[in-house]
Input
Amino acid sequence: MSGSLSNVYNNISFSLNFQAEAMARLQEQASTGSRINRASDDPSAAYQILGLNSQQRSMEDYIDSLSEVVSTLELSSTIIENITSSLVETKLRLVQISGGIYDEQARERTAEGIDDILEQIVSLANTKHNNQYLFGGSDTASAPYTVEYTNGKITSVTYQGSLEGRNIEVAPGVQSGAFYVGDNIFRSSNRSSPVFPGDTGAKAGTGTPSVTGDVWLTVIHDGSNYKLSIDNGVSYTTVPVGGETNRLVTDSRTGQVLYVDSTEINSTGVELVRIPGTYDVFNAIITIRDILENDRGLSDAQLQQLQDNSLDSLEEISNLLLQQSVSVGSKIGFLDNLKDSLKNLKYDTEDEVTRLQEADIAQIAIDMSRRQVLYQMSLSVAGKLMSMSLLDFLR
Output
């Protein structure tokens, strides 16, 4: 009999505890609004939620990276546009001077204005964003362009940044460059044959030169032979009597070379040799400033020709920057679309987590009502069973 009473008590306790725990869980879900408050509530759904939460955090990291990359590219695009505007201003001033209505003093004043433009362009090319240089490629810690001054004026601008871009992962399996190689942005790389516009008789040799942009070729005669220099007379190369079809002339300062056909050289002088397709924005403007200053004593006719030729170099650089601006703009558009896609994916992930985790309040209310009825029934049955006496059993 004791065994029977013990079983009755255990069954009653189990039933009451079961119903009480069920109601407690339902009350917790109703108060928190969450169907799963611990992994044991639904192990399978809890595992899915953990995976979705991890995916959501990953999407947030990618979206943050995309926002930073887009911000960097937008600033780079603005800088390119500003430099393009500076080139337009330089071209306008040069066209005014080329009209022939300005005297030597006006040319000098224009040269001073162009020198100010050059300083501004160099500063823009060395812009930093979040303590990182924009146009140094993968080397974002050092200024990409070094400047050499002579008598307070810029005489050369040299790229010293990395030749490799820096890529950042902006989506699973997708990388994008945020920091450009300045030497690719501000310098053409479509080399053509050198053009010798002067009247010394020098012509292009057959070798491929390494000089870029414009280079001043100086031709002198020592009484026996002609001599050639492309480093402002720092060093000379002697031309044999009768000349050569492919004479190598080296710039002793940079090591760059120019091949000259010297067979028809018939006079001395200085001429500006052009290498189309190799101009960079800085040294093109330096050359224009030097032409206007006319420190080499060129004639008005020579100045006019060089000024006209300089318009071609500005046009080449302007076209290059226009292409780069379009390229950067296209990349910004692509990354903006990618960011929107990741945001949509993140929202879908959040919706899925909500679907798995959010409690159905209406259903909880129904379940609570059902559990309360069962609990009350269990209490009623327990009351009757626990109130039985020995006489009840004897009957």
DSSP finds eight helices and 13 strands in the chain. The CA atoms of residues 236 and 357 lie 83 Å apart. Helices lie at 2-32, 43-98, 104-125, 182-185, 281-293, 300-357, 361-386, 390-394.
